[in-house]
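LAB NOTEBOOK - FOLDING QUEUE
OPERATOR: T.R.
BATCH SIZE: 2
PURPOSE: Compare the predicted structure-token outputs for two unrelated chains run back to back under identical settings.
PRIORITY: normal
REVIEWER: second-year student, initials M.K.

ITEM 1
FIELD SEQUENCE / FIELD STRUCTURE:
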Amino acid sequence: MTNPARRELPRNIEPFTLVNGRFVEVARGLVPLFQAEAAEGEKLRAPTAAAAEALKSSGLLTMLLPRRWGGAGISPSDYARAMIQLAKGDPSIAWVTQIINGTTWVGSITSDATQDALFGQGPRLICGAYNPPGIARRVEGGYIVTGAWPYTSGSRQADWAQCGVFIEQADGPPMPVLNMAYIPFSQIEMRDTWFVSGMQGTGSDTSVANEIFVPDARMVTMDKPVGSIEPGKRNWGAASDMLPVVPTVRATGLALLLGGAEAMLEIVEAESPKKAIVTTTYRHRTDSPIVLHDIGRIAAQLDSASILLFRATDIIGQLAEAGADMSDRQRSAHKAQCAQIVELIHHAIEGLMFIAGSSAFSLSHPLNRYWRDIHMGLRHITNIPSLGYEIYGRERLDARPNITPSGAF
């Protein structure tokens, strides 16, 4: 479905910044630090001070933010390349980077008033959660917001919380339409709830708002959804303003999971010439034709996932630079393509753990952390393959209604 607010707009879109691999090299240079800090980050259940400072000082948290607000304004594909490298250091750090980049960029495609409120004092970082939605009560000049949002990844690094809310109705229950309230983290209470087996180093605790006033300028209501470009809008014109929200977040998020899987492959390949296969005559894994076959198969799976990933990111980037919308058919095909990437990564990391054997499940073994983190990331609701395939099948066969609203996949 074409966004009617964009149909008559001029197409003089400012292209993405060409970075020639700069952020890839920055991320690659930080891999040793993030690998060294990862174990302590798991204990803290959040990025360490050293890791957090490296993220902020490197510019990695504002890669997607457009240049008009002090960000780098790079393309989804260049961003994905950097995220692959970052995840080789620590998938949890890469997850924090992904959430903050994505949510901060979403803040940059809101109305002029909201953008001015969020970024008018310089680049600011945003993270947040939307489910379960809180409640917003209309008052003069804004809303009173109350709610609790688990899984607030990056909460210790961000300045603003983006909080999903339903708006209370005077004559009945709240309308089940998701809106977004922006609240300073200085007004948010954080509950220590992040006790999980994967992505433990992300600080994804529960953010709580108790009767917080949110002025109109910091409430995005769905009568004018995120990404609307009305006549006279000042804060728009970058290619990132034309990116579709869900496909962009989905595809770039898979980049870090692919990077973690590639790190696992590198570890297994480095170990294989040195380790025997216990109970067999193979003194080294590389003596086994089966291991050599499986390594080749897994490497091909990850190569294929990479090809699909950059096809997915290139498509959305090219459409954005052309000032074009993404149709529901294109969105559904994109979601199914990303489902294929999920399955390829999943099969690859399971195969690697079979090669590595039970010793890889030791908490001291680096494979264990990558495996747990990737498994949790693969289960994010945007990544569930069966849902992606059904949505695509319904679009292809015009089976209405689809299971997810138009524009939300």
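ITEM 2
FIELD SEQUENCE / FIELD STRUCTURE:
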Amino acid sequence: MNVTGSLETFGDIVVFVLSILGRLANLRVFRHFGEVLRQAGILILSSTLVIWGLVFIIGLQCGIEGAYFNRSVGAPAYAGVFAAWCDLRELVPLCFGYMMAAKVGTGIVAELGSMRISDEIDALEVMGISGVTFLCATRLLAALIVLPFVYLCAIGAGFFASYLAVVQQIGDVSSGGFFLIFWEFQNPPDLLYSLIKAMAMAIIIVLVGCYYGYNASGGPVGVGTATAKSMVFNIVAVHIVGMLGTQLFWGTNPRAPIGG
């Protein structure tokens, strides 16, 4: 493993990220707000249903596992705990991160990489348009505008799927019993923390995708290599952010209302 090369690449990513954030901070990106809206529309149309669908499936799985586990210990109503905790704190953020890395991150690399190798980015800069601002900062701002709403709806899809699995499919507990336990283990700070985790993953994924796509070289093969590198980087980053977020928000105080 080339440690020196990896450190240099990480340093280049940091410099590139700071460049994008600088363009957001000084509001240069708003010169191209039409492009921001276009990218937001693309993000909604290309990714929303995929993310919701995966979260729905994982919510079903979490509900089924929780229901059968709690049946074995004689407390079927506590299947709601799995939905309240596992879905919100861990599974939904991870599913969101996986789909962002696989769908959005790789898509950004492929799109920007194809523009790079076909000299479209160079043509923009010849016309006096900053490629980093027009192509990268606009995508990041679009993600910041759209993805919080996409993620909150994904949480709802996961909760609904768990409810269907526990109450309608397996039927070990009534709807009232499920929601009684579910809301006991639910609180607004958890929702906020989960959103912060997911958005941290999303920001990293978009920035890494922009870096690898904007700096792609070597023709179509080079773009494919850059796409693979971004996927590996983002999957590792998703797990690191998930681990650190869980430790930061719930590691020292899980806030479990058990036994008073």
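REVIEWER COMMENT (ITEM 2): The chain has a mean pLDDT of 84.
FOLLOW-UP: none requested
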